[in-house]
Structure formats: structure tokens, C-alpha cells
Amino acid sequence: MARGDQIYVIRPYLQLQAVYQHHGIDCGDGHVIHYRKLKDYEMVACTSVDTFAQGRKIYARNYQVCYIPNVVIQRAKSRLGERKYNLLFNNCEHFATWCKTGVSDSRQIRDFLPLTTKIKTENLSQPLKQAFEGANRNDSTKLLNKALADIKVVWDDTQPQYKHSLQEINTWEQVAMKALNNNREDLARAALARKLNYKKRAQELKLRLEHLASMTETLLLNKVESS
């Protein structure tokens, strides 16, 4: 780690271990500027490294192109006291990445919800959110924990299958082209048939991922609104 580095630790998010990275900017003097969670809200604050890490291992994110340390820290200090935290659009990683590169981005949101940019929030289904209505805070938190954990199990099973199907589509396309170049139309037809099967499978898996992303966004928006 060095002055001006974008650093992060792995923190538990509700009951989901090792899926939440908490990011900040290393000031190089034993302090870190980050979105600190307080009792009722989150605020950009300068705290000690120990407060930031909470006993966890600290990692640094490297970039090929980024601002020099003085500029990174200046940008971080310019937002001290900010209270505009949003889990999906302005979280701690968005903040730290903006300080470091000028681009507000969160890889963990993009990796976990790669399809949310295509989802219109006004069209989100309401059943899960309605399930929280009337429940006390402790009960709604338990329901939220369970729902997110269940969704992640299905997501972790589905996403690799989707990526594998996309790879197979490309592979069988190449096999078909090579067979045609060798005047083996029979092999080319068989390869294209395999390609179509994987394409159909990929479409089915994509729909499942879109549904999971939609449900997850509903839950996360409910978390933001109720926090």
C-alpha cells in the first residue's frame, strides 16, 4: 500500500461472506478517506486505518492509468462530509474509484448485477417488497438476508453455465467453419446443430439471470429505502 492508493477490505454483507468489498483512499499518514457507516447514515469521513480495516486484511487495487497520489487525495478530501451514499449508484467503491480514476464505478455491482442497466426500476415486480411491509425491522432484515442468500446460491450456479454456453457457441462456430474449409459439410452441419443447442441454452440462462438481477435490485432498493 502507498499514499493515494485505492484500498479495500473484505467485509460481510448481511449473511453473505466475502461478497462485499469496502473501499477507501489511503492518505499515507495512517488515515483513510472512505464512506463510513454511522448509526443512521453513511458519510465520507477520514478515519484511522484501524477503523477502516476493522482487523481485516487490506488489499490495494492497481490501475494502468490513474491520477497521481496528490490529486487522488485532493479529490477524496473534496467530498469529505458527503452524505449521498447509494448502494447501487454511489457506494464506497464508486467513491474511491472516482477519486483514483475520475470514473464513478463499482466492479462488484457490475459483476453481481451485470444486467441491471437494462432493467427499468418502474417495472420491477413488487411481491418481495410487499413481503416486508408490516414486518418489524428485525424480521424484515432476516427476510432480506435469507432472500439475498438464496438468490446468490442460484446466481453462482447459473452464471458459470451461461458463460460456458457462450464459449461453446464460439467453439462450435469455429469447428463449423473449419469443417466447411475442408469440404466436410456433414461435420459442419453437426457443429452448427451443437451451436444452436448452446445458443438456446444461453438464452434460457440469460432470462434466469435477468430475473435474478431484477429480484436482487428490488431487495437492494428496499434495503436502501428502509435503512
Please provide a brief summary of the model.
It is built from 7 helices and 5 strands, in the order ββββαβαααααα.
Can you tag this structure with a few keywords?
five-stranded antiparallel β-sheet, endopeptidase fold (from Nostoc punctiforme), 7 helices, 227 residues, alpha+beta, 5 strands, single chain
Ranges where pLDDT stays below 50 over 5 or more residues in a row are: 114-132
What is the N-to-C order of secondary-structure elements (H for helix, E for strand)?
EEEEHEHHHHHH
**Fraction of residues in helix:** 40-55%
Q: Per CATH, what is the topology of the largest domain?
A: endopeptidase fold (from Nostoc punctiforme)
Instruction: State the shape.
Output: elongated
The termini sit apart by 33 Å
CATH-defined superfamily of the largest domain? endopeptidase domain like (from Nostoc punctiforme)
Which strand-content bin applies to the residues?
15-25%
**Secondary structural class:** alpha+beta
Radius of gyration, in Å, reads: 22 Å
List the total number of helices.
Answer: 7
The overall average pLDDT, rounded, is 79
With strands numbered from the N-terminus, the spatial order across the biggest sheet is: 4-3-2-1-5
The number of distinct β-strands equals 5
Number of domains: 2
Please outline the major beta sheet: 5 strands, antiparallel
User: What's the CATH first level of the largest domain?
Assistant: Alpha Beta
- Please tell me the CATH architecture of the largest domain by its name: Alpha-Beta Complex
